[in-house]
Amino acid sequence: MNVDLTVLLVILGCALVTVIPRVVPFILVKNVELPKPVIKWLSFIPICILTALVADSVLIQEESRLLVDWPVFVVIIPTVLISIWTKSLSITVLVGIVMMAGVRFLL
């Protein structure tokens, strides 16, 4: 299998552009003690990202209306209840995936 030099350079460039913003902040902040308000603010970021992902999955924009994707919403409710009950990310993810697969299989 031959790889053209241009394709190889594009792949390496994309890898570099992807790695730099993910690694450099950790290197820069590694030896710096962040103020308490910054740490508290950063603690909310995973919640914000999860909320954005869930809202993007559940809400469908059709013309000028927002609609609910009911199959996704039906799976979210028991998944959240399982997460509260087990407090296990692995179990929550597995239950959510299996339930969504089941709903998609049935529909």
Topology:
Elements lengths: L4 H25 L6 H8 L1 H14 E4 L2 E4 L1 H17 L2 H18 L1
Antiparallel strand pairs: 1-2
Helix pairs in contact: 4-5
Protein name: AzlD domain-containing protein
Keywords: Membrane, Transmembrane, Transmembrane helix
Structure description:
- It is a single chain.
- This protein is 77% helix and 7% strand.
- The chain has helices at residues 5-29, 36-43, 45-58, 70-86, 89-106; strands spanning 59-62, 65-68.
- Helix 4 packs antiparallel against helix 5.
- It has five helices and two strands.
- The mean pLDDT is 90.
- With 107 residues, it is mainly alpha-helical.
- InterPro entries: Brnchd-chn_aa_trnsp_AzlD.
Task: Characterize this entry briefly.
By secondary structure, the chain is mostly helical. It has 5 helices and 2 strands. It starts with a helix and ends with a helix.
